[in-house]
């Protein structure tokens, strides 16, 4: 396992990070989830990403159970705040001081830890002044409940504004967590340059495009039983943007490239995001331990310029590059 610095900080994290969105407490049974975490630990993964909203707080509890007995100082545990949790009352959402301060205590209790290494704003909150949010984060850092602050799916301008206020408050704002893959590159034109400018790096989710880049979905064929495309708990909705025959046909053109490099298509996809110097880690999820072991093999893989060119040529015009779509992940209003 290779390790990279998170943003401009001194913190190092495993470049393959294990995330439990859509799985723990939801899609897979606890025993299977725990087996996947143990496979991650055995493979050298030290960084684990979750959020209070995943399975409406249950994912944090499952992760804590899976990590029981591990030396806390040898792990990097990340969680997030923003989306509705609990009974989903009027203050159970957003980045208000009330919701943040209550949420960090709930997350620490469920994760069975005194602190998280990274506490992330899961989205931008247009209903709360940025100063209120950042001061609450500063208080959490100074109390020792979180060591670093990050965000998820913020636009370039929002990252710049957050970084400026974090600098004024003297707290370490180090990361953004966006969707990024060989098919979904909307952060490249604006978000990455802004992040480099202010010392923030990316912890990217869905490097295999919800499984599409594994090549298991083929044009004109029904999705395999039990795959994410057939999941009715949120998986099929997320993968829908890629489940077009033109995309699936282009993805199949990556197979010869992967074969030549003795990589699986999933390994090629994870290795691809790690070639970007502003990416600190690729988040992988799993429902079976063998998926963890396969994806971890992408750590340390170097793709030369010719391979990167061939990947671009294979995917062609199905690559999404529109920077304006970053704003679509940044809500105009809080979710109900």
TrEMBL record:
Q: Name one Pfam family in it.
A: Aldo_ket_red
Sorted UniProt keywords: NADP, Oxidoreductase
The record's section on CDD domains has:
Aldo_ket_red_shaker-like
What SUPFAM superfamilies does UniProt report for this protein, alphabetically?
A: NAD(P)-linked oxidoreductase
Q: Give the domain of life.
A: Bacteria
Q: Which residues form the NADP-dependent oxidoreductase domain?
A: 15-314
Q: Name one GO cellular component term.
A: cytosol
Q: Which GO terms describe its molecular function?
A: oxidoreductase activity
The UniProt entry's sequence similarity note says:
Belongs to the shaker potassium channel beta subunit family.
**Name by which UniProt lists this protein:** Aldo/keto reductase
Source organism (scientific name):
Mycetocola zhujimingii
